[in-house]
Amino acid sequence: MAAIPLFVPGGHRRRHYPTRKTFERLPDHEIRRHCGLPAWGARELIELYEPLQGRTTSSIPLDTKILAFLSQLRSGSFQWMVGGDCGIAQSSCSRIIQACCNQTLQFAPDVIDIPRSVAAQNKIKQEFYGIARIPNILGVVDGTHVPILSPTENEPSFVNRKQFHSINCQIVATRDYQILDVVAKWPGSVHDSYIWQNSSVRDRLYSGEFGSSIFIGKY
Fold it and tell me: Within this chain, do residues 146 and 99 fall inside the same structural domain, yes or no?
């Protein structure tokens, strides 16, 4: 929401700035509504985005920036709507989203990865075993279509089987929804099985890196 000029007697003009939303001012259910995450999970992200505190609209609190960024990812709404909901201008919202995307790319390789230690892998396997009594499951694999605007190049390949434009993303996750691997480069018309056949996690599996571990999925 942009600042609203207010005219007062005497010809003076003052600006009204909306109240910015922060994690401290929001109840847990409201944080989940904005971010799609439990409140404790959203708050844990503050440390990862700490480098943005002194950059990019430095007057805006860091948790307000994270709130706007996650709200955009969750809703896919217009920036002026996300900004207005969080108490910031559309122009600031745009810069914040770009900065948060860049920062995410910096720490993502350290956060999204299949654990290499035997102990960490065994913990994941035990959690899966507790559900279906199937041993050695290191992750579940599935695809999800992320809607996009119609691209100007190679447009037909981005039309998926449900007839809308998308990127077909492959995700490997644990029982508690921790993301271990993401492939987000294939257009919507590409089948899930093709993405798996050409993924690095499959190559790592067949090279023996994960021992007797298996990944399960439905194609």
Answer: no
